[in-house]
Amino acid sequence: MHKTIKEIKAELALITTKEALATHPLAQDSRKGVQQAFKSRLKQIEKQEQLEKQYEMMSQYENDILNQTPEALICGIDEVGRGPLAGPVVACAVILNDDHQYLGINDSKQLSVQKRTTLSTNLRNNVKAWHIGIATPEEIDALNIYNATQLAMYRAVEGLSIKPTHFLIDAMLLDKIHAPQQSITKGDASSVSIAAASIIAKVYRDQKMKEYDQIYPGYDFAQNAGYGTKKHLEGLDHFGITPIHRKTFEPIKSKYKE
C-alpha cells in the first residue's frame, strides 16, 4: 500500500541532509505530489544550510577571540538612532550565551519587523547578559551625536550584570574601556554579537518611538521612528517642534524655533 503524501511529508521533515534525501527509498517515486514534496524539502534543507553557513561566517570574530582565550566573555555593542531628527540614540550591549545559534540573525535593518521582534525576544530571554543605554535628545544637542552615542554605549556596558573581557563594537572605539576591543565597520552584518545588540536596540527604540507617537501625535513617529520623512516634516510645519526633537539637527535648527 502506497504511503499518502501527508505521511511522506512527515517523513521528509525528519531528514536534515541532501544526501539522506537523495537516497530515500521514495526519491524515485514518480507521483507528482511525491516529487513536489521532495523538491520542497530540498529547498528547506538548502535554506537551512545557507543560514548555518552565514551564522558561521558571522561568528568568525568571536571564534578568533575564543580560540586565543577560551574563557573570554565577549560583548557586542551597537546603536540605533543616530540619524533621526527626534528621539534618543539607543545602544545595547550583549554577551551571548554559550552554544548560541540564532539562525537568520543579521543587521537589524535587513530583517522584517516580525523576524526582528522574534529574535529580540529570544535573545533577551537567553543571552548571558544584555543592557540598554540611552542618550537623550538634550544630551545629543549638548554633546553632538558622536559623543552622545559613545555615552549611550558606556551606559549600556555599565548596566551589564556580567563584566565582559572583550568587546566587539560597530564602527566605534570606546576610550574609557580598558579591555581588548575591536571596532568593526558594518559590524552588525559581520558579527553575531554586534548583530544581536543591533536587534535588541532597534526593537527597543522602535517601541519607544511608538510610545512617543501617542504623546506627540501628528509626526507619524510610530512609522518613521523620528527620521525626516514627508509626514514628519509636514508635522513640523503644522505643529512645530516637540521636546524630543534634536534642535541642533537640520532642518530643525534652521527652520524651527522654540
Automatic annotation (TrEMBL):
Under the GO molecular function aspect, what terms does this record hold? RNA-DNA hybrid ribonuclease activity
- Co-factor binding comment: Manganese or magnesium. Binds 1 divalent metal ion per monomer in the absence of substrate. May bind a second metal ion after substrate binding.
Q: Which reaction does it catalyse?
A: Endonucleolytic cleavage to 5'-phosphomonoester
**SUPFAM superfamilies named among the record's database cross-references:** Ribonuclease H-like
Pfam families associated with the record: RNase_HII (PF01351)
Transmembrane parts of this sequence = none
Entry binding sites for a divalent metal cation: 78-79, 170
Q: Which PROSITE patterns match?
A: RNASE_H_2 (PS51975)
Using the record's annotation, list all stretches that form the RNase H type-2 domain. Answer: 72-258
Kindly list the places in or outside the cell where this protein is found, as annotated in its UniProt entry: Cytoplasm
Q: Which InterPro entries match?
A: RNase_HII (IPR022898), RNase_HII/HIII (IPR001352), RNase_HII/HIII_dom (IPR024567), RNaseH-like_sf (IPR012337), RNaseH_sf (IPR036397)
Q: What is its EC number?
A: 3.1.26.4
**Function noted in UniProt:** Endonuclease that specifically degrades the RNA of RNA-DNA hybrids.
What protein name is recorded for this chain? Ribonuclease HII
